[in-house]
Amino acid sequence: FPGRPLVALSWRQSGHDASGGATLASWLPLIDRAELGIVAVHPGPAETELSHFAAETGRNLIFDRRIDIAHDLLPFCIQLAACDVVVAGDDLTACVAQILGKPLVKLARPADHWWWGCRESNAIWFPGTRLIRAREPALAVAAIVDLATADAVKK
């Protein structure tokens, strides 16, 4: 992906869907942006899901299956540091991205952790983070595509 901004995409949390219903396929408006390179940074096992996604859609995402955060968090952090923008449905990816100073778009659930606050579009403890709160995951994904594309292209 030389010359293209890299967008780290964490579309759900391990064990359940943190984005309130958004599936990997619902991220196609972001994945299909030709000017961006998408790196799948799900913080858990995702190889099977990504393989099925590739078979069903014909789209392959960058994914390093060697990264195992249960044993070593450093490679995960390095991977996020290499990206220009982070889009996160899960809290771990969002918090690490914020610590690294990465532009972050967080898909916040209607009832989320207290540290994301209850404001509409920002969080006191995470300056610069763009929170997207939407009742319909498809609407949230559309807003994230616009915000992440704008941030990545600025770089």
The structure class reads: alpha/beta
How many angstroms does the end-to-end distance come to?
Answer: 15 Å
Q: Averaging pLDDT over every residue, what do you get? A: 81
- What's the alpha carbon Rg, rounded to whole Å? 14 Å
- Element order, helices and strands? EHEHHEHEEH
How many β-strands, per DSSP? 5
| Spatial sequence of strands, sheet with the most strands | 2-1-3-4-5
Question: Helix fraction?
Answer: 25-40%
Please summarize the sheet with the most strands. 5 strands, parallel
Identify low-pLDDT runs. Answer: none
% residues in beta strands = 5-15%
- Name the shape in a single word: globular
Multimeric status of the protein: single chain
Give me the number of helical elements.
Answer: 5
Draw up the topology in text.
Blueprint: E1 6-10, H1 28-31, E2 37-40, H2 47-57, H3 74-81, E3 85-88, H4 91-99, E4 104-108, E5 130-133, H5 137-154
Parallel strand pairs: 1-2, 1-3, 3-4, 4-5
Structural account:
With 155 residues, the protein is an alpha/beta fold. The protein has helices at residues 28-31, 47-57, 74-81, 91-99, 137-154, and strands spanning 6-10, 37-40, 85-88, 104-108, 130-133. A 5-stranded parallel β-sheet has the order 2-1-3-4-5, with helices on both faces. The longest helix has 18 residues, at 137-154. The model has no long low-confidence stretch (mean pLDDT 81).
